Amino acid sequence: MSGEDQSSGGSQELSIPGWGSVEFGRRLGLKALGATAAVGGIAALSKASAASAATKSDVIKIGYVTPKTGALADFAGPDDFVLSLVRGSSFFSKGMTIGGKKYKFEITVKDSQSDPSVASQVTTELIQSTGVDLIVTSSAPETTIPVSAVCEGAGVPCLSTVCPWEAWWTGVSSTNSIGDAGNAVGSSPKYCSMFFFGIPQFVLCFLPMWNRVKASTNANSVYAAMFPNDADGNAFAAAYPPTLAAISAAQKGTTWTEVFGGAYTDLTTDYTTMIETFKTGSGGQTCDFFINCPLPPDFNTFWKQASQQGWAPKLATVAKVMLFPTDVYALGSLSNNVATDCWFSPNAPYKSSLTGMTANAFASKYQEVTKNQWVQSMGSTYSLFEIVIEALKSVKNPHDREAVAHAFSEVKYVGMCGPLNLSASTSPAKGIGIINPVGIQWKPGSTSLVGHKKYAWSPWVVDNTLNKDIPIQAPLEPTNA
Question: Is the entire prediction scored with pTM above 0.85?
Answer without folding.
Answer: yes
